[in-house]
Automatic annotation (TrEMBL):
It comes from Paenibacillus woosongensis. GO terms for molecular function: oxidoreductase activity. It is an enzyme of class 1 (oxidoreductase). Residues 16-326 form the NADP-dependent oxidoreductase domain. This is Aldo/keto reductase. Signal peptide: none annotated. Pfam families: Aldo_ket_red. InterPro entries: AKR_Detox_Biosynth, NAD(P)_OxRdtase_dom_sf, NADP_OxRdtase_dom.
């Protein structure tokens, strides 16, 4: 099994984790009705996929309390009955939802709310502790972040959580948490189209895991969506066109620029028998010894393909150099 350390915690984790946004199912903005999920899900398939991953040797799973307005955590709690000790659980807090109406209601990072959110996640996950608790408001004001860090350090002392981190793409925010001995990971966007070198450098400096959100560019790097092949589920967030950070798809159509770049590097990614998905994960492992990609899934088949990427391991330095040059050339063409 291809393994890595979960930052300075010393915990051994599989080099691949499981991202659980999609298995939360639909939820939506309370004001606009716009979707935040990835469409309908089959909980039985989700549970089967999680158990397949455990049997394969994957032992890191990442979710959030707002995915499906808590439903993702509930599914994980069901899947891990009797197997909790075989999985390192990461979840997040800061985005407020209504479990009954499946509505997104805003954000809250007050000390009182953090404690309430932690207890709610423990209940849904059916566990006594959370291995990695991550702040989910990426652009939270720096001058207020020390208070959040202080509450998390108290939760560690109380045994509610073991370690904490921040899900953010801003190195200045990440560095605030990195000062704590209990901060062991930063979750940030990283993939072939989003090369966040500054954050990788910070993770290496502070011995933190770089947990890679969006490692497959919301599915674009799987090769499933290309040209006029679109996302058809109206409740899939990739159908939206009003979110600035939604770069890979607009109105369900994949970015033509990124699709063109993917075609240019396809042969390298799929060398040695890899699929496109497996090549995209291999690129991440080659970027840094700190990287821990968490591709999403909805089926056993997707988890199988993701897991098999570990048999191949990282791309070689020569392959990485070729890809870098081709990406540069196609971006300017």
């Amino acid at each position: 099994m291809f393994k890595r350390k979960l930052g300075k915690s010393g915990l051994d984790v599989s080099a691949l984790g499981m991202g659980c946004w999609a298995i939360g199912g639909p939820w939506h903005d309370a004001l606009t009705g716009e979707p935040y999920g990835w469409g309908k899900v089959d909980d039985r398939e989700s549970i089967a996929a999680i158990n397949y991953a455990i049997d394969y040797g994957i032992n890191f799973i990442d979710t959030s309390d707002n995915y499906g307005a808590g439903h993702s955590e509930e599914v994980i709690g069901q899947a891990l009955q009797g197997r909790r000790d075989r999985m390192i659980i990461a979840t997040k807090f800061g985005n407020v939802t209504n479990e009954q109406t499946k509505e997104a209601l805003g954000q809250n990072a007050s000390a009182e709310y953090i404690r309430l959110a932690c207890e709610a996640s423990l209940r849904r996950l059916n566990t006594d502790y959370i291995d990695l608790y991550q702040f989910h408001i990426g652009d939270y004001p720096e001058h207020l972040a020390q208070e959040v860090k202080g509450v998390l350090e108290e939760l560690v002392q109380e045994g509610k959580i073991r370690y904490f981190g921040w899900s953010t793409d801003l190195p200045s925010r990440a560095e605030i948490f990195a000062q704590s001995p209990y901060c062991t990971a930063i979750q940030h966007e990283l993939n072939l189209f989003r090369n966040n070198t500054d954050m990788l450098n910070l993770c290496e400096k502070y011995q933190l895991s770089s947990i890679n959100r969006g490692p497959l560019a919301m599915g674009l790097l799987t090769g499933k969506y290309s040209g006029e092949v679109t996302v058809v589920d109206p409740k899939d967030i990739r159908r939206r066109n009003d979110l600035d950070w939604l770069k890979y798809f607009k109105d369900g159509v994949p970015s033509p620029v990124m699709t063109h770049q993917l075609q240019a590097i396809r042969d390298i990614l799929t060398s040695k028998g890899r699929t496109l998905t497996q090549g995209a994960l291999a690129w991440l492992w080659a970027k840094s010894d700190t990287t821990l990609p968490i591709p999403g899934f909805r089926t056993v088949q997707q988890v199988t393909e993701n897991a098999e990427a570990m048999r191949f391991g990282p791309l070689t330095p020569a392959e990485m150099a070729q890809i870098s040059q081709l990406m540069t050339d196609t971006a300017s063409s």
